[in-house]
Amino acid sequence: MLSRTSFSVSRTRARLFLSSSTAPLPACARFPRFHPHSLATTTQPSSAMSTFKQEPHKLLVIPGPIEVTDEVLYANAHPSMSHVSADFIPVFGDCIRMLRELLFTQDAQPFLIAGSGTLGWDQVAANLVEPGENALVLNSGYFGDSFSDCLRTYGAKVDEIVAPFGDAVSLSELEAALKQKKYKVVTFTHVDTSTGVLSDAKGIAATVKKVSPDTLVIADCVCSVASEEIRFDDWGLDVVLTASQKGLGTPPGLSILVASQKAIKVFETRASPVTSYYGSWKKWLPIMKAYESGTPAYFATPPVNLIYAFNTALKQITKQSPSIEERFRLHRETSARLKHAVEELGLKQLPVKSSVAANGMTACYFPDGLTAADIIPPLLKKDIVIAAGLHKDYKLKYFRIGHMGISAIDSTRRDVDKVIAALKESLAEAQAGKNALSQTARTRVVDRSMPAARL
Amino acid sequence: MLSRTSFSVSRTRARLFLSSSTAPLPACARFPRFHPHSLATTTQPSSAMSTFKQEPHKLLVIPGPIEVTDEVLYANAHPSMSHVSADFIPVFGDCIRMLRELLFTQDAQPFLIAGSGTLGWDQVAANLVEPGENALVLNSGYFGDSFSDCLRTYGAKVDEIVAPFGDAVSLSELEAALKQKKYKVVTFTHVDTSTGVLSDAKGIAATVKKVSPDTLVIADCVCSVASEEIRFDDWGLDVVLTASQKGLGTPPGLSILVASQKAIKVFETRASPVTSYYGSWKKWLPIMKAYESGTPAYFATPPVNLIYAFNTALKQITKQSPSIEERFRLHRETSARLKHAVEELGLKQLPVKSSVAANGMTACYFPDGLTAADIIPPLLKKDIVIAAGLHKDYKLKYFRIGHMGISAIDSTRRDVDKVIAALKESLAEAQAGKNALSQTARTRVVDRSMPAARL
What we know:
- The structure is a homodimer of 455-residue chains.
- The first copy, chain A, has 455 residues and is of the alpha/beta class.
- Chain A has helices spanning 11-19, 47-51, 70-76, 89-102, 118-127, 142-153, 171-180, 201-211, 232-235, 261-268, 281-293, 304-318, 324-344, 372-381, 406-409, 415-446; strands spanning 59-60, 109-114, 134-139, 157-162, 185-189, 191-192, 197-198, 216-220, 239-243, 254-259, 361-365, 384-385, 387-388, 398-402.
- In chain A, α9 (232-235) links the parallel β8 (216-220) and β9.
- Chain A is globular, with a radius of gyration of 23 Å.
- Chains A, B: Keywords: Aminotransferase, Pyridoxal phosphate, Transferase.
């Protein structure tokens, strides 16, 4: 019987990555990088793996789901496995260990649960905030609104500091709010996928620690894990919640949350019962500990295939080139290149300044006179899928491009070059079309026989 | 650009199925079976699809996850797609439509949410039962305990009728309970995966309708959809909740729930707010309606790849041979064959009578003197994966075999034959080992130099 391989890269890809790995040793070297042979699954690609190629498809450059590797997709097609089998348990356990490594934490507690990123909010609201307790939401877009909504659903008293559109909440506003009221948690969206606004995670955590050290710092990192720098222990974060389908380069369907031991203590000493069943850490904590220690346990069936896929993605991120630090640098460089290009095309970005602009996505206003219909379908015809706006008040005014994971780090794919070229072409076509139309409109003043509807 | 195919079967498999499809037209003919060409995705297998084979692996015959087809796994390896794209929306919409067809319902409302089956309990408890309302749980095993626990978490006042181990709750007990108190919901586990006990879904629904017609009938069908007969409209069910990894033959990670319009009305007219965020139908109902009508909508990113896989599985179930009715018959026949074989081997089943024994799984006590260690690892060595016990009080006393999906309906796989042969062999080996041991033990009375630990 062949044992199946979920850890492998094509030799070409591996070589390409290795060629960019000559950078100095990363600062994270104090966190030992696992030796590949300590991992549970074999590292020899099977012959089937080396031939698996995903089908030709349109280039997906929305801010999640993102393009993923053939290896990850092949792992998602793993034959059915028992969720409590000796073969599967260490695959799950390795995900927990590699996730810690990626977030630079020694002892924080990961939770891997079938669900979307949204389920992370429920976990925070139901496990860490008791009904009637105060929560402060730093709102930099659509996902701040939603996190508030979720916290209120579970009984929290929520205050919000709402940043101006395209900006992040300032640290001085946060500091002032913390001085006025005691909060059980402060939440922020590291990258708000609706606006592409990046919050200063390190600064927020430092401010909370300084003014209100008991308050838990909750980072919604759905659109930032593995594309933006996150240093869980050094920065003093208490929760990082995310999902599989963005920087982590895995299909969607996995809610990923990492909680500090301080947060676990707060959960364990809460006075009232947890207000969710499926999202209850009382149920999940023993399961996560069991899987990590290599023993079977059951609460609900984990998404086994997706865990294989996630394991493969985490190995590519933490065990292969580029290093985690290099990965951050490559995301910054790719982002800078795309942002420079859109500026050259005359497009204005949503983030009001570069310090609050995400490195894994770019959000731009449509040029004057153009709408989504002028840009998005023409790009689609060129086999490039970008995203429309999402923020409730502005969604018709802008579009979003994702550049996370392999689209950002593997320059041989030329994903961002393709996007820039297609965008340039589509904008020129749209402008030319508008000019022709306005020419026709001027003609119409003379020739009134042309029905207006046809314009 | 090639369009990707998620609906295809190998020609050989299709022919084998078709050869058994000469049965008379099923009674469900009044529910029109969709014409394949009305479905969104193409029906031509691509060349890549026709060559994809899952890797050799141990035969998985636990009561879920189950063995799945190559086509389903290949769909799970679909390239990344936008969750709001024109390509993906009808794939999701078709899942909703085919699910109705499978459950024989005209207008019930499906919910497809990233999560495990457990999330279905949260949906019921948070959307249909208001805090302080009465719920009656018909408890036929481990999953009855858990459903009660979930209902209480969201504030329901729960009464339970606990069946004797290996039996289902009787309809007369249900009737008596309904006459004593008014319940918002009655819940039951159609097949309790921990015991293999089958409840009389039709009889339970009829009893509730007769005695307490306003009470909602909630069926936990995680281990019964597509393996046991379920007639949603005819029987008057209000909720069927299930998961992807059992009879539906899809990898785990999808919570699937179908609610009657009566249940939706109860939800819509509730007095208090819904007590979950991620599980809130207030959030999900507009999304499900949008996907079904072919328009994009967003609350949380759906598990796109798993939806492709589920779509493929549902097409195999509802559009190909065998028909849905034939599928039920084949599950009954396979089950009867395995149950007859284990009886011949002298094994006693957990269900106290055949009328309460599931058709998709079999639970047997270990023979006297043997334990899990005598049976499960030897079967594993023969590349067959069965499950240990799960019920809290009896889990060391029995084992479970799953026979759902392709293991039940595709006789060319010979899955159940392999299980029977391996079980017979393992039992004989274990008995021979015990006999040898007891012979050695008798010898030890004379030779006391042998250390006991080595036995």
